[in-house]
Design a protein that fits this description.
Elements lengths: L6 H7 L2 H8 L19 H14 L11 E2 L5 E5 L6 E7 L14 E3 L7 E4 L2 E3 L15 E3 L8 H19 L7 E7 L13 H4 L4 E6 L4 E3 L4 E10 L15 H11 L15 E9 L3 E10 L2 H21 L4 E10 L3 H4 L3 H13 L5 E2 L7 H7 L6 E3 L2 E2 L7 E3 H27 L20 H7 L1
Parallel strand pairs: 3-8, 3-9, 9-16, 10-15
Antiparallel strand pairs: 1-2, 2-8, 4-7, 5-6, 7-18, 10-16, 11-13, 11-14, 12-13, 17-18
């Protein structure tokens, strides 16, 4: 294997930075209130641009002669392999609805000196608040102008994949399985995997390029459920309400007060789960509270839902005229539930990061990725860093060096899967086996322990 460990090679030989600066100027925010696919038509504009760029690189379609974007906004392409096998690379087109993505104006800070960066509009980036900056002295930093998000989540992932593809096209002798690419819409609103073309994509393993700072890889995410609690009271004119009215809003407030504050997002980190009220609507007669429930352990998540149901039952016991219904729906499950049985995937991913000259950081994701659902659907899909920091707001930034390191990791990874494919085909083992581990490294079955330790 030829190890790619010099990000300057990627930066000098590809258009990875130019592509990223172009992509972020497309307004691609998704909309969770929409019932269209994709949720916003403006995502299709960048999708069409990516189709053109993939065709220019010489990639072909998946199941079709040409690279295409389907009716739901999924862009599919394939770079043919030099050895048997297939590996998938995925990144999402949309940006978060949480902050404006209109008229993004990226700014470059070349030769970063280690001090504070005045982005504009009152936004200042400082190593004291963002320690990752301290690791980027001398780098070129891309920031916002303070009025929008940047969109490194996940246009950096798209750019990293495109940069890796450029190198693979330039050097056709690099051993690789067929590399299939999917750029998908609506990840930020939890719909990225809902209409994913699994049958066409047809990869035994894939990777989302959607993580944060250098070296971060993830084989574990939250398990997630959504709860909708509906309160039905007794409506009476307030002038004659004594002893008669049951105010649904008041009882919603009592439930909010009983949710354990120590299990709220703002009071938890690491491997702690939480209750998170997100939307309240209605009036004194009837109102609805929406919550999201999160835990790394799926069984603990289910029990969290039962606790919520018991809290609501307690309210009705206090006020028998009150009606409370709880509807809990599954959103996604921890990818570790599947990946713990496939430790060789994480081992190759860690090896690809090390070959890029980076220390791997196996981090559990306090959220979900498209890979959570794709893994559950039968395609193991861990997550790889793309380089961005401070996602979803005006403080978002990225180092171009780290962006290029992501592309280096991808290049190493596809070569490792090529080696595995050849080994499997020949029926013999070469080099590091799927069960090999360095002295002192965690055993394959100890991936969860490794994630906690790091």
């Amino acid at each position: 294997m030829r190890a790619f460990d010099d990000p300057s090679v990627v930066l000098s030989r590809t258009r990875i930075l130019d592509r990223f600066l172009d992509y972020v100027r497309y307004d691609t925010q998704s909309d969770e209130t929409s019932d269209t696919w994709p949720s916003t038509a403006k995502q299709l504009e960048l999708g069409r641009r990516l189709v053109d760029e993939l065709r220019e690189l010489g990639l072909r379609g998946v199941g079709e002669a040409q690279v295409t974007m389907d009716q739901n906004g999924y862009v599919l392409a394939e770079l043919p392999g030099t050895v048997p096998g297939r590996v998938g690379l995925c990144a999402h087109i949309d940006t978060a609805p949480a902050f404006s993505g209109t008229a993004v104006n990226p700014r470059l800070v070349e030769g970063y000196d280690g001090g504070a960066i005045d982005v504009g509009h009152g936004i200042v980036l400082s190593p004291a608040d963002t320690p990752e900056l301290g690791q980027c002295v001398g780098d070129t930093i891309v920031t916002t102008d303070g009025s929008t998000l940047l969109g490194a989540d996940d246009k950096a992932g798209i750019a990293a994949i495109m940069g890796a593809l450029e190198i693979l096209v330039q050097e056709p002798d690099i051993r690789r399985p067929a590399v299939r690419v999917c750029f998908n819409p609506d990840e930020e609103i939890g719909r990225g995997a809902e209409r994913f073309p699994m049958e066409r994509f047809d990869c035994p393993v894939a990777f989302t390029i959607d993580g944060s700072f250098t070296g971060e890889i993830s084989v574990e995410t939250f398990s997630a459920d959504k709860a909708v609690v509906t309160f039905t009271g007794v409506a009476v004119h307030p002038g004659t309400a004594r002893g008669k009215m049951v105010n649904a809003l008041t009882w919603m407030g009592k439930l909010l007060d009983r949710l354990p504050m120590g299990e709220a997002p703002e009071c938890t980190d690491g491997r702690d789960g939480f209750y998170h009220p997100i939307v309240a609507s209605g009036d004194a007669a009837s109102c609805t509270l929406q919550l999201i429930l999160r835990d790394f352990d799926t069984e603990v998540l289910v029990e969290r839902g039962r606790r919520l149901e018991r809290m609501c039952a307690g309210l009705m016991a206090e006020e028998p005229r009150l009606g409370v219904t709880v509807e809990i729906t599954k959103q996604y499950r921890n990818m570790f539930d599947v990946l713990s049985g496939r430790p060789e995937i994480a081992e190759r991913l860690e090896e690809a990061v090390r070959a890029a000259g980076i220390t791997p950081r196996l981090e559990p994701v306090r959220g979900g990725t498209d890979g959570s659902r794709l893994t559950e659907l039968g395609m193991p899909t861990p997550n790889i860093f793309a380089g961005g920091v401070n996602f979803h707001g005006p403080s978002e930034w990225i180092s171009t060096r780290v962006l290029a390191q992501s592309a280096c990791t991808i290049l190493n990874l596809v070569q490792l899967f090529a080696e595995y494919s050849l080994t499997k085909t020949k029926g013999i083992r070469h080099g590091r086996s799927p069960t090999h581990r360095e002295p002192g490294a965690p055993a394959a079955g100890d991936l969860r322990a490794a994630a906690v330790a790091r």
